[in-house]
């Protein structure tokens, strides 16, 4: 293996280059290489200054996350950075790509920073449940103002070089070749006998920080980032920077960092980081599987879903043809999309020019014949098999050979849909979540006959439109909605047994769910579930009398949820804030009475188990059936599609963290009480017998 750190002297300037693909993470070998390079440079009298740069696509992207949780190989990063800090000749960091985490901390330790205009810097540690652990919380508030440092560290956001320069975090923007400019900068510093600008020597400017500033900031962040500990630890470390000398602050930062590193929050967030990067990898598809080119997308259906899907492609620079049956419906869809861009412009989130260019890529049509040039058609029409069949037969007729035909169905059998065409190999599911331009998740449904290159194209396309995608096999509800069933069922039964909607929701909110099941039902519309149950009854399936008992009664009363101003809760006009409604308590009590269910006090622990354990149990079945490729994919689905708390790592990671044996025991107890809806998944039984966890699969 070639050396990850190399040195080359150009007259009086030593150029140190890190080359550790893909992102120049600070692995043990890189840390050792840097330490040696600076030690030698310190001793070498002909070296008057150093430039630190990276080869490849980016400056250092941070610590090597794959080393976390393992014994630390010396030298530790703080030791290496101490060497750079105390280096007696000017050190210039040359930044390109993204300088993140330990990478930006390294740059902050250098005495001067020059960056390409396109470079970005940031301290994203908070997103991994950490705080910057190598001086970032002590150096940044010394180099720039305290409030901006707080904002950067607590949000973890990336800051573009020009903004970083305005803040004072970067000294120069390179016009032209970065390395040449950095070398010239270093020579200039030597020629001018410029002072060594060490952050460690700088004072923190606390002039505009009031006595209550940190307390207020803490409260505000606690509200915005509910349940998360890392942002609070970041604030604490920065407050320390304003009160303690640099060396002491550094020590405290390290203590806080090690505490965070050992936390379950950080373990979960690191798990999610890798889970999301693994998700698009399809185990049995070779990396070099050919992909089809997607130059134009056709979308059938201009409703909420269709318009949302269209925006994804328009934003990514891909033209869209939007098809509807009636001109009013088409116009409504186009208006929705236009309103989105108007809003982006008005809020300053998108430039006038970009928004206009995106919107200009949209074409509307009432005629299927205009789909003759689309490379991908996505159907987003009413959830009904007969309707889907009609659409796909039509697509089969008009689309060119090789076009990919996708359905956005959230429940229906994609194999059956594919069978409506003469080219099932070109058909797959692209299950977007609503609102489709906001939600990051996409389930890519691989049907029995879906061709490899069709799947590979879809997985690549996800990256293009900024989604995180997971492959699902065909089954009722795919991964996410199939799991949701047990969750919703138990929530409904708990109501009958004695829990109130707000008790259930607040329990789940405290657990960290973005929304409780009752509030979610009100948002989605209670009539949707009612209709689905009615359809099941009509198909001759048995629907348990407790299943949706309360929701069905509410729907009969016209309480459809937010859209009718009342559902499980009451809503005031124009507000989404749920208000308790005693009328609902009466409905619940009456329903329980009719079903002969005696109401009792229900504990928070029981609510959690009754809602979360069915998720875990169903997920085990999904894994065993090969519907999901790996447990971490299920975590990605629930975090990005259903508001499962990221800091618990998703249902599978959460199950591993509390122990599968105790979950299985509890599931068996509920089975005795409630029967076979609580039948344990064979995979769960097997893992417990073998003393394994989901992460061992
Ligand atoms: N360590 C190890 N591997 C990493 C990595 C890292 N820091 N960052 C990325 N990778 C891998 C990633 O898993 C993927 O691998 C490949 O690189 C490309 O990544 C002391 C505590 C840099 C903006 O949090 O934000 O510093 O899947 O697909 O879209 O205080 O990666 O190909 O096998 O994401 O071009 C702080 C995390 C660490 C940065 C590039 N740093 N990385 O995005 O490619 S904590 C971060 C990113 C820290 C100090 C501490 C992005 C990126 P594979 P990618 P990308």
TrEMBL record:
Q: Which PROSITE patterns match?
A: ENOYL_COA_HYDRATASE
Q: List, alphabetically, the Gene3D superfamilies matched.
A: 1.10.1040.50, 2-enoyl-CoA Hydratase, Chain A, domain 1, NAD(P)-binding Rossmann-like Domain
Q: Which Pfam families does the record cross-reference, listed alphabetically?
A: 3HCDH, 3HCDH_N, ECH_1
Q: Name one GO biological process term.
A: fatty acid beta-oxidation
Keyword terms, alphabetized: Fatty acid metabolism, Isomerase, Lipid degradation, Lipid metabolism, Lyase, Multifunctional enzyme, NAD, Oxidoreductase, Peroxisome
Annotated GO MF terms: (3S)-3-hydroxyacyl-CoA dehydrogenase (NAD+) activity; enoyl-CoA hydratase activity; isomerase activity; NAD+ binding
* Pathway note: Lipid metabolism; fatty acid beta-oxidation
The 3-hydroxyacyl-CoA dehydrogenase NAD binding domain covers: 297-472
| Domain of life per record | Bacteria
Which family is annotated? In the N-terminal section; belongs to the enoyl-CoA hydratase/isomerase family. Belongs to the enoyl-CoA hydratase/isomerase family.
Protein name, as recorded: 3-hydroxyacyl-CoA dehydrogenase
Organism name: Vreelandella nigrificans
């Amino acid at each position: 293996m070639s050396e990850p750190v190399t040195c080359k002297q150009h007259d009086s300037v030593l150029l140190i280059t890190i080359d550790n693909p893909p992102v120049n993470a600070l692995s043990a070998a890189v840390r050792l290489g840097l330490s040696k390079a600076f030690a030698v440079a310190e001793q070498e009298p002909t070296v008057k200054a150093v430039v630190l740069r990276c080869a490849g696509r980016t400056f250092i992207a941070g610590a090597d996350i794959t080393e976390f949780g393992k014994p630390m190989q010396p030298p530790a990063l703080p030791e290496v950075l101490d060497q750079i800090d105390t280096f007696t000749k000017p050190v210039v960091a040359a930044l390109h790509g993204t300088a993140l985490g330990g990478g930006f901390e390294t740059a902050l330790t250098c005495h001067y920073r020059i960056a390409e205009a396109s470079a970005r810097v940031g301290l994203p540690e908070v997103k991994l449940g950490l705080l910057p652990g190598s001086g970032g919380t002590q150096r940044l508030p010394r180099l720039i103002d305290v409030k901006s440092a707080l904002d950067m560290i607590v949000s973890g956001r990336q800051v573009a070089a020009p903004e970083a320069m305005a803040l004072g975090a970067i000294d120069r923007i390179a016009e032209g070749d970065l390395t040449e400019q950095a070398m010239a900068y270093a020579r200039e510093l030597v020629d001018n006998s410029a002072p060594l600008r060490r952050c460690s020597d700088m004072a923190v400017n606390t002039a505009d920080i009031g006595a209550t500033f940190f307390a207020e900031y803490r409260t505000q962040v606690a509200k915005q980032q509910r349940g998360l500990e890392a942002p609070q630890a970041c604030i604490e470390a920065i407050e320390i920077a304003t009160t303690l000398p640099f060396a002491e602050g550094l020590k405290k930062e390290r203590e806080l960092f090690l505490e965070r590193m050992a936390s379950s929050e950080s373990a979960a967030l690191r798990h999610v980081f890798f889970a999301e990067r693994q998700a698009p990898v399809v185990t049995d598809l070779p990396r070099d599987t050919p992909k089809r080119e997607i130059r134009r997308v056709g979308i059938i259906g201009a409703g909420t879903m269709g318009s949302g899907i269209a925006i994804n492609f328009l934003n990514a620079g891909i033209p869209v043809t939007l098809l509807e049956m009636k001109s009013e419906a088409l116009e409504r869809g186009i208006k929705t999309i236009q309103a989105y861009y108007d809003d982006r412009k008005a809020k300053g989130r998108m430039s006038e020019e970009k928004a206009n260019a995106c919107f200009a890529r949209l074409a509307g049509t009432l005629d299927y014949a205009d789909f003759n040039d689309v490379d991908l058609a996505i159907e987003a029409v009413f959830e009904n098999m007969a309707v889907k069949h009609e659409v796909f037969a039509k697509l089969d007729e008009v689309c060119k050979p090789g076009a990919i035909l996708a359905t956005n169905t959230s429940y229906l059998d994609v194999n059956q849909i594919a069978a409506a065409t003469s080219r099932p190999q070109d058909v797959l599911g692209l299950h977007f979540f609503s609102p489709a331009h906001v939600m990051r998740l996409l389930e890519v449904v691989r049907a029995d006959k879906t061709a490899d290159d069709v799947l590979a194209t879809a997985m690549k396309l996800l990256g293009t439109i900024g989604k995180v995608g997971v492959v699902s096999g065909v089954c009722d509800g795919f991964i996410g909605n199939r799991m949701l069933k047990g969750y919703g069922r138990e929530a409904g039964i708990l109501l009958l047994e004695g829990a109130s909607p707000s008790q259930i929701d607040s329990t789940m909110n405290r657990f960290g769910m973005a929304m409780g099941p009752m509030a979610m039902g009100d948002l989605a519309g209670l009539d949707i579930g009612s209709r689905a149950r009615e359809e099941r009854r009509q198909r001759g399936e048995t629907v348990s009398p407790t299943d949706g008992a309360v929701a069905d009664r509410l729907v009969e009363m016209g309480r459809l949820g937010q859209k009718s101003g009342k559902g499980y809760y009451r809503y005031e006009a124009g507000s989404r804030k749920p208000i308790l409604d005693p009328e609902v308590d009466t409905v619940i009590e009456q329903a329980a009475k009719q079903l002969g269910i005696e109401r009792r006090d229900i504990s928070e622990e029981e609510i959690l188990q009754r809602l979360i354990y069915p998720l875990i149990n169903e997920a085990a079945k999904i894994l065993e059936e090969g519907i999901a490729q790996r447990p971490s994919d299920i975590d990605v689905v629930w975090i990005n599609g259903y508001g499962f708390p990221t800091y618990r790592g998703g249902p599978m990671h959460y199950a591993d963290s509390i122990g599968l044996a105790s979950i299985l025991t509890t599931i068996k107890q509920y089975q005795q009480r409630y029967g076979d809806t609580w039948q344990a998944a064979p995979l769960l039984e097997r893992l417990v017998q073998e003393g394994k966890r989901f992460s061992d699969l």
